[in-house]
Each structure stands twice: as C-alpha cells, then as structure tokens.
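Need a sequence for this fold. Nothing fancy.
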C-alpha cells in the first residue's frame, strides 16, 4: 500500500493518511478483513509520528471503515461500503508489504455492471452504436488483408487512420496534420502517456473539482501534487486558477472544457482563451480532454482550446469510446514539437503501438457519410434520454435537490442536501439494483460527498424511468426521515 505524504500541502498529514486509506478501500485495492500495518509500522514507513497515524486510524474506525481487534491488529471492515458482514479469520497478508505506486483506481469499482440499472459509468447504450457495421468491416478486412494480424503497425498509429482523424477533426474546425497525431488505446492511455512523460513526484497538476476520476487516479499514481479549481456553469473558474498560479508553479492543467465530466458544463471561448494566456505566460501544458463534444443537444459547442492554441501548449485528446466503439480502444492525441516527440517515445515504451485490427476496422466508417449520420442519430437519442431524466427529476425529486442542465454529453450532476453522503446512499440504491457515481470519486483532494452523477446514456428509456424515479423516491424517504427525526428531537 502506497501512501503519498505531501508535507507542503494545506491538508493535514493525518487527513492525507485517512483519505489515502479510504481511497484504497473505495478502489477495492484493500480487501475486506485485510490486516493493515500496525500504527508503529506505518508511522515508521511514512516518517510521521505515532499520534498522526493513531488519529487517522481512529477517524476511519469511527466511520466504520476499519476495525481494531485488541491483541490482533487493525483490519479493513467493508460493512459500511458494502453492507456485508462476514465473520472470517483475520490473517496477515504479506503481499501488503510489497510497495506499490497505485494510490487509487476508482474505475474498477464502477466499471463492473452487476446491477440491473446502471447509471454509474458514462458509456453509450450498445444499441446506439454501429456494431453490426463494424463487425462486417472487420470480416471484410480480414478476408482482404489477413496479414493485419501478423504484423506490427506503426507505433504512432496507422497512417490511414491518422489521415482520417485529421479530416474528422477538420470538420470540427480543428486543423492538424497526420504527423501531429498519435493513436492511443483510448484517451485514458493519452492521459497516462502524458503523466508518465511529464509528471514526477511533487510536480503540480491543476484539475477541476469535481473532475473525471480516471484522470485523478493517473496523476495520483505519479505522485503529483494536485491542486484543484472549482467549476461553475462555465467550467473551470479562471479567477481561482489565476490565484493558484500566483502562489504555485503548475506544470499541467487538466481540463474537460466541453460537456465537463461530471457536471456537463461548457466553457465559453473567453475562458478558454484566458486559460491559454495563463499557460502561455507560465510555460505550462494544458491537457484538453474531449470525449464527447460531438454530443450536443442545443447548439454546437465553442471551438476547442487546441484550435485556439498557437504555441503548442495544448495536448488534445479525442476518445472514440463515447461516440463510436469503446471496445476498439481507440483515441488520438494531438500535440506538436518536442512535446509530441516525447509522447511518441512514451507510447513506444508502453505498448509499441495500438492494435492494428481495430485501427483499420474503423477507418471506412469514419471516412464515410455514415459517421456524421450516426452522430446525428446519437444526439437525437441521447437528447430524448436527457429530457426524460430532467422531466422525472422536475416531477419527483425532493425540492432540496438541485441539478445542472447539461447541453450535451452523457451525465447529469445532482447536488443533495449536505448531510446526505452519496457513498452511503449508493448502498441504498444498490439494494434496488441501481448504481450511480458518488461524487466523492470525482474530487482529487478535499472531497464533497453530497453530489452524485447520473449517466443517462447507457440504459434504455424504461430502465432510465424506473432508475431515476426510484432514486428520487429514496431521496425523498431519506429527507422525510431526517425531518421527522429533527422535529422529534425538539420535544
Ligand atoms: N476522459 C474522460 C473525461 C472520460 O469520461 C473518459 C471515459 N469515461 C476517458 C477520458 C477515457 O475514455 P477512453 O479511454 O475510453 O477513450
């Protein structure tokens, strides 16, 4: 278990230890009933006082995440998170003493789909994707070009695909060239390549709060010092960003400016330009993560930050998972100059190139009119689902609950009364076979626990209706219970 202690952080060391162990538990990196290092061992390992560790363990124990057994040690108790209570044998796990560099991995937890109504990870309903067509393309390609399986492709990515992506991006008013495109295994790999190339322990990375959990996990894994900037309806708040730059020297800003994950906010052009100005004057890199700017419901979103960038500060990531075929694991990264060359070298170190089969398979679709027709249909289908969720929320959600209306993307971000912890509320929803993403997963540092993200893109309309209505009813019951408890305590 790797606990990263940042001594110059505003967050106390006790809290860092507490949050780190909590992240490990939430990521399923620590199994139920696993023995934690003793207070003495952990304080020695981290170079902190015994009292600091004791306080962190005490807080975790008070909240029901761990349990201390006199004479035996301290153990993970998942009863709080998973509502299971097994009386098992406590055993010391020697594997825990193997040092790792993986502080958290929330993805694994929300990517499995055991529940019936899956509103947690933002994936597209397979019924809305052109699977049949891609399947035919793969058969056709294999019969015409069987060697595709017996050769390496170019590390940078298949040239024809890079050319196809240049034309695709051109339609989105983003001019680039095949030489500046790197094909990645999804944009998740793009984030990872950037982090492993440019982020070392202590380097400062600025992220929105809340933000995409998969990016937090990668930067945390590199030992970055993550500073956060709050988001409003126009995305990352530039006034707060400027304050951070007055005090620190960030190396990277990670942002999802269009249909921000999880809030759905769209950053206007003015803010995009302001962030670029800050990056330019401080020689900072900007990662523009763009998984779904094509999925707009009202008006086309503003031009990408990359298209406004004249000096090579922006590394642009376009994933194809949200619009075409998550199973193909294809995304692209667009950058320039020596930044690009170093990322290409990182890609070589990582996997020597993405699979040729899936790269070749999507080219005919992307280059034909089918792609644009498909995107149009996708927008229409997802707008219907978004409107359905908004209508149910308006009708059934308690008045204490608020939300942001997304003009595109796949998610709706809900804010609940501050006393509702959505990690715990998730357990209630799971009893009804429903999942959502609890807000805590989306905060890199100080967590806010009273938000949740509903993805409306994966389940069909009937399940969506059932799932969102049930969530509203569960929330209403929780609020009614609290109100009656509060009023009875006055007597
Ligand atoms: N960035 C954002 C903002 C995302 O939401 C996701 C997927 N949920 C990714 C990156 C990773 O997507 P992929 O690797 O499938 O392209």
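Here you go.
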């Amino acid at each position: 278990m790797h606990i990263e202690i940042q001594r110059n952080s505003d967050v106390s060391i006790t809290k860092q230890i507490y949050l780190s162990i909590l992240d490990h538990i939430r990521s399923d990196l620590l199994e139920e009933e696993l023995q934690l290092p003793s207070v003495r061992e952990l304080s020695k390992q981290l170079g902190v006082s015994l009292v600091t560790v004791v306080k962190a363990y005490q807080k975790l124990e008070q909240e029901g995440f761990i349990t201390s057994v006199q004479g035996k040690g301290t153990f993970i108790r998942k009863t709080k998170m998973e509502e299971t209570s097994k009386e098992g044998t406590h055993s010391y796990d020697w594997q825990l003493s193997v040092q790792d560099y993986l502080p958290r991995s929330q993805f694994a937890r929300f990517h499995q789909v055991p529940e019936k109504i899956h509103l947690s990870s933002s994936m597209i309903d397979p019924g809305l994707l052109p699977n049949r067509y891609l399947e035919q393309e793969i058969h056709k390609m294999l019969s015409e070009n069987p060697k595709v399986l017996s050769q390496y492709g170019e590390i940078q990515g298949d040239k024809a695909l890079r050319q196809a992506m240049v034309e695709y991006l051109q339609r989105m008013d983003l001019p680039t060239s095949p030489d500046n495109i790197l094909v990645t295994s999804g944009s998740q790999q793009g984030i990872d390549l950037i982090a492993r190339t440019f982020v070392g322990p202590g380097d400062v990375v600025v992220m929105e709060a809340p933000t995409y959990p998969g990016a937090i996990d990668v930067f945390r894994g590199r030992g970055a010092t993550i500073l956060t900037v709050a988001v409003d309806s126009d995305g990352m708040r530039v006034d707060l960003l400027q304050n951070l730059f007055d005090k620190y020297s960030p190396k990277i800003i990670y942002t999802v400016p269009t249909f921000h994950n999880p809030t759905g906010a769209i950053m206007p052009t003015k803010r995009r330009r302001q962030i670029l100005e800050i990056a330019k004057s401080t020689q900072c890199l900007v990662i523009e993560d763009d998984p779904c700017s094509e999925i707009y419901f009202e008006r086309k979103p503003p031009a990408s930050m990359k298209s406004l960038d004249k000096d090579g500060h922006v590394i642009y990531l376009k994933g194809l998972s949200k619009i075409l075929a998550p199973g193909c694991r294809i995304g692209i990264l667009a950058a320039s100059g020596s930044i690009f060359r170093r990322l290409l070298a990182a890609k070589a170190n990582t996997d020597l190139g993405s699979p040729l089969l899936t790269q070749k398979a999507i080219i005919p679709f992307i280059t034909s009119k089918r792609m644009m027709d498909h995107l149009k249909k996708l927008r229409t289908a997802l707008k219907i689902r978004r409107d359905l969720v908004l209508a149910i929320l308006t009708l059934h959600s308690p008045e204490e609950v608020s939300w942001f209306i997304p003009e595109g993307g796949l998610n709706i971000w809900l804010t609940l009364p501050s006393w509702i912890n959505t990690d715990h509320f998730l357990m209630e929803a799971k009893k009804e076979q429903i999942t959502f993403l609890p807000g805590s997963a989306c905060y890199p540092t100080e967590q806010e626990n009273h938000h949740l993200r509903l993805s409306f893109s994966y389940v069909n309309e009937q399940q969506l209706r059932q799932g969102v209505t049930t969530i509203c009813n569960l929330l209403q019951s929780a609020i009614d219970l609290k109100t009656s408890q509060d009023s009875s305590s006055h007597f």
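For context: The mean pLDDT is 91.
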